[in-house]
């Protein structure tokens, strides 16, 4: 008797097509990857180095590393996780040689928000997100711009985490993997970042 075993489907890498194009030397694939990930790579690099100019250098070095290392990429992680690991490694190397004005861990607490204002961690769709939207509608261009400005004012690691989680839609495991953070660290940084952004939004209401 033959027993059929069903193997759960693995979520495909959304960048697999671009990866294939990059390996084939297609310039369009490389341009699309740069367009898709450079803004987030810049924010993450900025968490490790003391200036935007240096972060931009890190991003350029990251893309050079991608081109030179594409043949060695074995696909054990997603393309985006691979990209961010390259960026973090290069940023750490650069940052270790430069004086920093802020501690890496962003240890200084910002304005606090009652935890009851957030959805629980086991919420099926929006774990840890705001339970009640700010009074100002987040759909207006003015408020969206204000949110982005508030994110830019965050301490570097909080900015990196909230950018990946709430702007780019990464899940917690992906952020921990790419930034080499523990789950607890990632949660704390995200909560502090969301608290600061919400306090900023409510101040303008």
- Overall geometric form: globular
Q: Specify the CATH homologous superfamily of the largest domain.
A: Winged helix-like DNA-binding domain superfamily/Winged helix DNA-binding domain
Class of secondary structure makeup: mainly alpha
Any idea of the CATH class of the largest domain? Mainly Alpha
Mean pLDDT: 78
The number of domains is: 2
Give a short synopsis of this structure.
58% of the residues lie in helices and 0% in strands.
Q: Topology, pairings included?
A:
Layout: H1 16-23, H2 27-46, H3 52-69, H4 79-96, H5 141-152, H6 156-167, H7 172-179, H8 183-204
Describe the structure.
Helices cover about 60% and strands about 0% of the residues. The chain is an all-alpha fold. The protein folds into two domains: about 15-95, Orthogonal Bundle (Rna Polymerase Sigma Factor, Chain: A), CATH 1.10.1740.10; about 115-205, Orthogonal Bundle (Arc Repressor Mutant, subunit A), CATH 1.10.10. Helix 2 (about 25-45) packs across helix 4 (about 80-95) and helix 6 crosses helix 8 (about 185-205). The longest helix has 22 residues, at about 185-205. The protein is globular and about 50 Å long. The protein starts with 15 loop residues before the first helix and ends with a helix.
Short descriptors:
single chain, mainly alpha, Rna Polymerase Sigma Factor, Chain: A, Arc Repressor Mutant, subunit A
């Amino acid at each position: 008797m033959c027993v059929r075993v069903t193997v759960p489907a693995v979520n495909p890498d959304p960048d697999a097509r671009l990866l294939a194009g990059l390996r084939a030397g297609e310039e369009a694939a490389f341009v699309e990857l740069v367009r898709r990930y450079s803004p987030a790579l810049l924010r993450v690099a900025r968490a490790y180095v003391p200036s935007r100019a240096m972060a931009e250098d890190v991003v350029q070095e990251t893309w050079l590393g991608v081109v030179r290392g594409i043949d060695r990429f074995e696909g054990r992680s997603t393309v985006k996780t691979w990209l961010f690991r390259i960026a973090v490694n290069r940023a750490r190397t650069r940052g270790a040689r430069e004086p920093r004005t802020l501690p890496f861990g962003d240890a200084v607490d910002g304005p606090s928000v009652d935890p009851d204002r957030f959805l629980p961690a086991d919420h099926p769709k929006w774990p840890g997100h705001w339970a009640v939207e700010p009074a100002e509608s987040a759909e207006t261009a003015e408020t969206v711009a204000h949110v982005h400005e508030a994110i830019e004012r965050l301490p570097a690691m909080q900015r990196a985490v909230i950018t990946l989680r709430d702007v780019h839609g990464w899940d917690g495991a992906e952020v921990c993997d790419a930034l080499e953070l523990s789950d607890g660290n990632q949660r704390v940084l995200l909560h502090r970042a969301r608290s600061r952004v919400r306090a900023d939004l409510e101040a303008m209401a």
